[in-house]
């Protein structure tokens, strides 16, 4: 009953909210606010930012609801993590530029086959990369790396931010968890991204975690079981955009 209520409300809110975000975006994007009093321009920008935050929240709530349904219909296919990571980097490049952060990908592997769902794993990449970009200092790099350890492919996302507060360690993957939950927090987000990522990785029978150092560098990682390239397993077509 609760899941159905959340799903219905989220769907009903998303349509009008999309129109509101679009209208405010057009007003601000066309520079119309320069013709208005400063106070009204400021209020419009605040409304635009908060409508974007609401959109993110609704999308994350719908992702949770959809993920619950997909658990019973999960049909993993053979995919290459090397290609997937490169595509994820390209898809999130525009986001990183908003924070003046450069995305780089490092691996010595030519291929890295696992059984999984491309769309869901791209969502994990997007969640972890966007978090890293938001907390990384300006003009630094966020590095995505991939390596093989004991029949497990480990994907890591490195940033040079301020690190994870010690008091936040135990609840970092909980729903709506945020290191700074105050109304004046500087970093956006719904507090659902890491929880969604954890659910997706566990659906793939993998492990997700993080490491942080006193110097502030943080590494989020996830481990997935390596699979050989078998001809009797259906392979999901993942196009390497860097080869086009």
TrEMBL record:
It catalyses: ATP + protein L-histidine = ADP + protein N-phospho-L-histidine. SUPFAM superfamilies: ATPase domain of HSP90 chaperone/DNA topoisomerase II/histidine kinase, Homodimeric domain of signal transducing histidine kinase. Its EC number is 2.7.13.3. GO terms for cellular component: plasma membrane. Keywords: Kinase, Membrane, Phosphoprotein, Transferase, Two-component regulatory system. GO terms for molecular function: phosphorelay sensor kinase activity. Residues 8-228 form the Histidine kinase domain. InterPro entries: HATPase_C_sf, HATPase_dom, His_kinase_dom, HisK_dim/P_dom, HisK_dim/P_sf, Sensor_HK_Regulatory, Sig_transdc_His_kin-like_C. This is histidine kinase. It comes from Pseudoalteromonas denitrificans DSM 6059.
């Amino acid at each position: 009953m609760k899941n159905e209520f959340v799903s219905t409300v989220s769907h009903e809110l998303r349509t009008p909210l999309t129109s509101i975000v679009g209208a405010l975006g057009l007003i601000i994007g066309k520079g119309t606010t320069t013709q208005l009093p400063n106070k009204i321009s400021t209020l419009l920008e605040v409304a635009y930012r908060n409508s974007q935050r609401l959109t993110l929240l609704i999308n994350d709530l719908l992702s949770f609801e959809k993920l619950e349904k997909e658990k019973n219909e999960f049909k993993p296919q053979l995919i290459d993590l090397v290609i997937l990571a490169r595509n994820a980097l390209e898809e999130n490049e525009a986001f990183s530029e908003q924070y003046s952060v450069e995305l780089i990908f490092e691996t010595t592997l030519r291929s890295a086959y696992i059984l999984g769902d491309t769309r869901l794993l791209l969502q994990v990449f997007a969640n972890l990369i966007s978090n890293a970009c938001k907390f990384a200092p300006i003009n630094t790099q966020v590095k995505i790396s991939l390596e093989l350890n004991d029949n497990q492919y480990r994907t890591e996302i490195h940033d040079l931010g301020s690190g994870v507060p010690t008091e936040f360690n135990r609840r970092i993957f909980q729903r709506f968890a945020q290191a700074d939950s105050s109304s004046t927090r500087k970093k956006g987000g719904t507090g659902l991204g890491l929880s969604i990522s954890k659910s997706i990785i566990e659906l793939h029978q993998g492990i997700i975690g993080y490491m942080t150092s006193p110097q502030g560098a943080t590494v989020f990682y996830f481990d997935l079981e390596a699979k050989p390239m078998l001809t009797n397993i259906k392979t999901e077509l993942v196009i390497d955009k860097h080869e086009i």
